[in-house]
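Pilot study result, target chain (1016 residues):
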Amino acid sequence: MAEGGAADLDTQRGEVAALLKTQLKKGDTWYLVDSHWFKQWKKYVGYDSWDKYQMGDQNVYPGPVDNSGLLRDGDVLAIKEHLIDELDYILVPTEGWNKLVSWYGLTEVQEPIARKVVEQGMFVKHCKVEVYLTELKLCEDSNMDNVITRHFSKADTIDLIEKEMRKLFSIPDEKETRLWNRYMSNTFEPLNKPDNTIQDAGLYQGQVLVIEQKNEDGTWPRGSTAPNVKNSSYSLPSYHQYSNSYDYSDQSRPSERSGLCGLSNLGNTCFMNSAVQCLSNIPPLTEYFLKDKYTDELNEDNPLGMKGEIARVYAELIKQLWSGKFSYVTPRPFKTQVGRFAPQFSGYQQQDSHELLAFLLDGLHEDLNRIRKKPYIQLKDANGRPDKVVAEEAWENHIKRNDSIIVDIFHGLFKSTLVCPVCSKVSVTFDPFCYLTLPLPMKKERTLEVYLVRLAPLAKPMQYKLTVPKVGYISDLCTSLSTLSGVPADKMIVTDIYNHRFHRIFATNENLSSIMERDDIYVFEVAVNRVEDTEHVVIPVHLREKYKQSGYNHTSTPLFGQPFLIAVPRTISEDKLYNMLLLRLCRFVRSSVDEDEEDCEETQSSKQHTVNGNATNGLLEEGSPSEMETDEQDDESSQDQELPSENDNSQSEDSVGGDNELENGVVGPQNSTKVQQTTGHNRQRLFTFQFNNMGKTDISLIKEDIRQIRFDEGHLRLSDRSYLSLDWEPEIKKKYFDETVVEDVDKHESMEYKPQKKAFFKLNDCIELFTTKEKLGAEDPWYCPNCKQHQQATKKLDLWSLPPVLVVHLKRFSYSRYMRDKLDSLVDFPLRDLDMSEFLINPNAGPCRYDLIAVSNHYGGMGGGHYTAYTKNKDDGKWYNFDDSSVSPANEDQIVSKAGYVLFYQRQDTVKGTGYFALDREEDEEEEEEEEEGEEEENEGEDKQERKGASSSLGASSAAAACASACASHSDEEDLNDNRRTKNDNEQEEEEEEEQEEEEDEEEQVSNRDVTMKTN
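Predicted structure:
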């Protein structure tokens, strides 16, 4: 058994490893463990086969489980936002957690971070540990201002929430209650299925729940059917009957303008709302669904499709948005169907609007694919054939398998050219695309905060803010720091310090991506260049507190203070090593003020030495300069601190072992004093030291006869596994080590530096970068058919043909194992006349000027933030801002911003009225037919009403057509002049009526918008 009553290390390792493989099961509880602590535990128990060097070493003993790195400041229950599994924390099952706590304990004041396993997905079920709980706001119907916030698991039931609310508001057991889901200030939904979970009910972050008590007379305060109650329950909708599936704000409200309808946020669903609003405002696609053209093209048998369900539910949603009846709708059926076929969207975590858009376009395409049976097609390489021939062949092959409204509107073709660097084989293919993902042409840099620890023992560490490449090396960090500090880069060693020990010591050729934002990076100035100087070794040093009772106390870490690095000659006397270490620590060592106290301490120390003088390392002999003298020599110490390496060639055998040379680190003010004390044995050292090489105590370094220490070749390689421990008696540490100094640092002026406002880029810059030749990465090679092996080929993309609607995705998010980042540079994109001709290599490409019609915006950082949309209404040509359920007018100067994420452009030759799309041509024919029918109508009122209906469903008809319809009902027997006069009178009268109606509409819209804004 290991010390502290824990199981032996092999048992610990085996049991935890087995438990970590436990399958997730709905309802089980798992616990979060800070990855920093867990990595330390893995080192201690030798968890990884390649990292057993420090197994059982007390210097890597992890101490009690410490989750402080996961917790928000000052809160033992709330965890930080945007933590990532395996990067920030490790999940362990209940049994594993109990074992770890029984072996090591839990840091005082902290509480276990327990989380439930929940099921996600409506039909394709998968389990997931619910790391982030859902925050609900609870209140009573009689006092809605008194809101209490509580966190619940998505697996918790409505019944459990009701019980919690009864307890919170002290409602007697005999009182009958019912629960309401409050959406807006006056919109409620009954929660009447107690067995439903939070996930089933679609409750989301920040949702307000109201508990209502029955009156004494048996009535309910909100009435049996409360006003403004939503008409559909939260239970899952039918997948075939959509007529009553959507929840509406209030069906008795006056009509809204078509298309200006918001979407309720169901809980982090702003990403979905943003994408849907953008697609909703693509005229040819929306007209296709509003006209029910999709019903003839539903492909329910497509194995790659969704049985037509995605197309149906999307069509229903579009019809509600464009009905003109509602200020907003709640798209729960749509989200349910999306989650059914794409489980990644089934929960209520924030997602990416572009990822949802990609899924939706693909799902709609397969559900509406006109090809019922896809033929097998053998793809061919160009093999020197003309681009025109190969491109036409590629497009024909694509259309043979993929033919839908999505292909008609969104699909284009680009040319991909790969060149083998070995045999120069050129491979040309033409591939279809649905959207362009454009990189941002920005300097890939990041800022890092580091601490520089200088050689001067009395100098405080200084904090710097460095600008380094994102894809760079540790050497780049050293170069940047050298520029600011003046310390040579080749005399720097970069480390990561965690829990009073070196968590990692970096080599200069390691990637900067391995440094995470929350790491404490300390850069040490050393007296030698490790590469060139082989006469010195650099040793990591830890400070350790000794305990007399049982060696080391396992209730808290035995380490304290900040570890440091020190360069020493390969052969050095024990006394000189002690003096060099003491010199390095002089900033932390305080002298005793009271002489009597000092004498008393001396006597005590002398007695303690008698008890503990038989340490295994044999380094407790007295005879070094006193700690009192050390602190008195600030000036001399400052001069002496670099002496060990002042003259690398002067180290003779005599000077290495000599007792009278200050350049080897002796701290005493004068040699006579030192010799006196050494021979007098009247002072005890502040600490003893112990060498640990690869996790084991290394006594062989010390030659007992001459008390010389010799370091062999193995010590030239600096490693956090080979270090020196300085052991302090508790009383000595308490009296002489000043722990308050440890956190004392200076700040360099670079800490005030705020990254310059990034220059903006034009959209054309991004397109140019997209079409620039690049070399494939080592992790993404191309298989060359000539060489018969994978090669890092050069790749170039060129645009061949562009679709009617061009979707441009700006690649703002970057991910790696150690980093998550969002590029928030401003990309200046044109609102109209985007000319793509310069990027097309097809000489016969045709028209290629585009106007912007929609933008999906993302505000905030990685892993969260908020999505909105700007769209141009197809009926009035004006811009609007869609922010979940709120819709408001937008100015053109608002559209271009740093938040722009996905852009939607429509080609100018495809807009309504050009007759580009078949539906557009059919509509023109229908309008002509209606005009002819209008001439036969006899009732002017009916005729006027018909025109009004035609205007709302088909878009505004021309003024001339309206006038012609108005005058056509008059009798043919009337005189031509009378007819003309009547026509003019009617036109004037109608114009006045229409002006009055427009004014009323405008007032009504303003009123409705005001209501919407207030409500939201």
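One observation from the pilot: The longest strand covers residues 559-569. A full batch analysis is planned for the follow-on phase.
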